[in-house]
Design a protein that fits this description.
Layout: E1 2-3, E2 11-12, H1 14-17, H2 21-33, E3 34-38, E4 47-53, H3 56-66, E5 73-74, E6 81-85, H4 88-96, H5 118-129, E7 130-141, E8 144-157, H6 160-172, E9 178-184, E10 187-190, E11 196-199, E12 202-210, H7 214-221, H8 231-244
Antiparallel strand pairs: 1-2, 3-4, 4-6, 5-6, 7-8, 8-12, 9-12, 10-11
Helix pairs in contact: 2-5
C-alpha cells in the first residue's frame, strides 16, 4: 500500500501496519530517535513525523523501506541527518503506540508489544538510544598486570517510566539489567554558526548489562536473520559476542 501527503514521496504504510518484526523494530527506533510535531496553521490536527541520526547509512536503510524517494537532509548546527514525513496515517499509527509529541521525559515503553517481537522492538530502542562498548580492562595484582575484555551494553532515556517499563519487560524475558540514575550538569556548546546553545541540566536513566550478562542479551536482540539493524552496532555486537564467547 502506498500513501503519502506528498505525491512525489509516497509512503509504504504497510511496513508499519503489518505489525511484524520490522514494524516493531521501527517502533523502537521512532520511540527513541523519532519525533512527532503538530503542524501549525491548520484547523484540524496535522502531524509531521521526523527521524534524526548521525548514522546516515542506517537512516538511508530506513528511508528506503518507508519512502524510498524522500530526501535526507543535514542539520546545519549538528553532525546529524534527518528525514521528515508529513503523513497522517503514519503519525496516527505511531501515536497509537505511545510515540507522542514532546515525549523525551514522558514516553513509556508500550505494554502491548507482542513477546515474539520484543527482541525487534528492543533492538530498535538500542539502535536509537543504546550504547555498546568493547574495551580492555587492566588490573594489577601482586605486581602482575592482567588484561580482561570488558563489554558494556546499556540503554539511556530521560523518561523514568520508559526505563522501568522496559526493565520489566526484559526481566520477563529472562534478563536482569541494572538501573542507574545519572545527573547531567548544564552545559553550553558553540554551534557551527558561532551561536551559543545551552543544554539544560537534568536526569537520565540507564539500563545496563555488562560482560557475560550482555552476551545473551546481544544474541537475543541481534538474532540471525533479523529484518533490520544499525550496521555499526550490529558489527560491534558481533565483535563483543566473539570476545565473550571466546572466539578472540
Amino acid at each position: 500500500m502506498l500513501h503519502g501527503s506528498h505525491s512525489k514521496y509516497p509512503v509504504h504504510l504497510d511496513v508499519f501496519q503489518r505489525e511484524d518484526a520490522l514494524s516493531f523494530y521501527l517502533l523502537g527506533v521512532f520511540l527513541t530517535d523519532g519525533n512527532i510535531d503538530r503542524l501549525s496553521g491548520h484547523k484540524h490536527d496535522l502531524y509531521r513525523v521526523g527521524l534524526t541520526s548521525a548514522d546516515e547509512d542506517w537512516l538511508k536503510l530506513i528511508r528506503d523501506l518507508i519512502s524510498p524517494l524522500r530526501p535526507i537532509w543535514k542539520r546545519k548546527d549538528q553532525k546529524t541527518r534527518r528525514m521528515e514525513i508529513a503523513n497522517q496515517d503514519l503519525a496516527r499509527w505511531l501515536l497509537s503506540w505511545g510515540c507522542h509529541e514532546r515525549k523525551s521525559l514522558t514516553v513509556e515503553f508500550p505494554i502491548g508489544v507482542p513477546e515474539e517481537y520484543l527482541p525487534d522492538c528492543v533492538r530498535g530502542v538500542f539502535d536509537g538510544d543504546g550504547s555498546l562498548t568493547v574495551c580492555d580492562y587492566r588490573k594489577v595484582k601482586n605486581g602482575k598486570v592482567y588484561i580482561y575484555p570488558r563489554v558494556n551494553a546499556y540503554i539511556c532515556s530521560g523518561s523514568y517510566r520508559f526505563i522501568t517499563g522496559l526493565q520489566h519487560r526484559l526481566k520477563l524475558a529472562g534478563f536482569s539489567p541494572s538501573m542507574f540514575e545519572a545527573k547531567k550538569k548544564e552545559n553550553s556548546i558553540i554551534r557551527s554558526d558561532k551561536t551559543l546553545r545551552t543544554i539544560r541540566a537534568g536526569v537520565t536513566w540507564r539500563l545496563q548489562l555488562a560482560d557475560q550478562s550482555a552476551a545473551p542479551f546481544l544474541q537475543w536482540m541481534y538474532y540471525p536473520g533479523n529484518p533490520l539493524a544499525m550496521p555499526r552496532k550490529a558489527a560491534l555486537a558481533r565483535k563483543a559476542l566473539d570476545i565473550l564467547c571466546g572466539k578472540q
